[in-house]
Design goal:
The chain has 395 residues and is α/β, with parallel strands linked by helices. The protein is built from 18 helices and 18 strands. A hairpin with a 6-residue loop joins strand 3 and strand 4. Helix 10 runs parallel beside helix 12 and helix 11 runs antiparallel to helix 12. The protein is globular and about 65 Å long. The termini are far apart. The mean pLDDT is 97.
Length: 395
């Protein structure tokens, strides 16, 4: 019997990767649109479907993507009932931006800028000044916040324009560098319980004729990472946050709009060798690589100087049927990080960028033991990770 001929891998074309709707329907467009409706100078309404309101509240639920709400009507009856209101009554979601991860998305929300401008292009990214990986969620190693992200936040500009602005979140977040560069401006009110956050957010919303209030809840994401979205623990958190959203909606003062959104969705990845490719155990993927950044479904790969082309070739040969694998310039040209890239951000992006298409991740069992053990993950351009709600309640 004749042996089958060896075949080259069928690579995923880069033009099949869904590009976030920067400029018209991404998380970065939300606060600028609300601020424009409140007549804050310098902003335009980027999301045309939204109607201005004097008082705007954004409730961001970490990790609760569009697809998760659609699939869990029983656990989240209130949120599910609001799906037709999303994006100004069109029943459509927003896109998170790339990568679809918390540090990047919160910076996009707060600054109103895409990742290529605000400069937080992943969970971890190389600092070109030091050559070290910078964890942009935990801000390690320490980096001067205003050097890393120099732009003012929308909250700061709204506050300067006389809009009553406030953030209501867990007290532990008040002094974090990520909060400082992404979400500061006006008042920060730390509250431990979700119920207290909803009540205080409603109070701050009523405190001004024009108000811009942000509140946040993290544990849907936390339980998803630890147990997966097909777990009782995750479903319990979904039920709880559904009640929080209803509690806030029922307290809206007059002339208010409440927008319920998220920073990303989430996907569960099986614990098997086919679904979890261990970079630390794969000599081919490691060859020529100086640093591995990003996260399992959105990797920044930093090559040893001179090895960039070889690393790109190998990563495409090994992973190109399951990942969109692009060079830095290809990812930028495709618009993954936004329409423009600041000069200071260019070197933070990997020489190779790998975004998962299939249900698979690239782990690093030695260097990233905690992240490698996560059941639920996110980061890539697929709809389950990328699409986020913009549910709306008005008073």
């Amino acid at each position: 019997m004749a042996q089958p001929a060896w075949q080259d891998p069928v690579l995923l074309p880069l033009d099949t990767a869904p590009v976030p709707e920067y400029g018209s329907g991404s998380l970065a467009d939300l606060l600028p649109t609300l601020a424009a409706g409140q007549e804050v100078p310098g902003f335009t309404a980027a999301i045309p479907e939204l109607t201005p309101a004097d008082r705007n509240c954004v409730f961001l639920i970490d990790g609760l993507g569009w697809e998760q709400i659609k699939a869990h009507a029983d656990e989240a009856p209130f949120l599910h009932s609001l799906l037709p209101t999303s994006r100004g009554g069109t029943g459509r979601p927003l896109t998170a931006g790339f990568p679809s991860t918390t540090a990047t998305s919160l910076a996009s929300v707060g600054t109103g800028l895409p990742p290529g401008e605000h400069g937080l292009p992943g969970y971890t990214a190389r600092n070109p000044e030091t050559g070290e990986l910078m964890n942009q969620l935990r801000w390690k190693p320490w980096t001067a916040p205003k050097v890393w992200q120099p732009y003012p936040t929308v909250f700061q500009l709204a506050d300067a324009a006389g809009v009553h602005t406030a953030q209501v979140s867990a007290p532990t977040f008040e002094q974090t560098p990520l909060t400082k560069v992404a979400l500061s401006g006006g008042s920060f009110l730390g509250r431990l319980s979700g119920e207290d956050r909803m009540d205080v957010a409603a109070q701050r919303l009523a405190a001004g004729d024009r108000s811009l209030v942000y509140t946040y809840y993290s544990e849907v994401d936390g339980k998803g990472h630890r147990f997966g979205t097909d777990s009782d623990a995750w479903r319990g958190q979904l039920m709880y946050v559904d009640g929080l959203a209803r509690r806030l909606a029922e307290q809206l003062p007059p002339r208010s709009a409440l927008y319920i959104t998220a920073d990303h969705g989430m996907i569960d990845i099986p614990f098997d060798e086919q679904s979890r490719i261990d970079f630390d155990e794969d000599w081919e993927l490691r060859a020529g690589v100086a640093l591995l950044g990003g996260e399992g479904r959105a990797r920044h790969v930093y090559a040893v100087p001179g090895a960039e082309a070889d690393v790109l070739t190998v990563w495409r040969e090994v992973l190109g049927e399951q990942f969109w694998v692009a060079s830095r310039d290809e990812a930028i040209a495709a618009g993954w990080f936004g329409p423009t890239i600041d000069e200071r951000v260019y070197g933070r992006i990997g020489d190779v960028v790998a975004a998962a298409h299939d249900d698979v991740i690239i782990t690093a069992s030695v260097n990233e033991p905690h992240e490698s053990a996560m059941a639920g993950v996110h980061g890539s351009l697929t709809p389950v990770e990328q699409l986020v709600p913009l549910l709306e309640v008005r008073s």
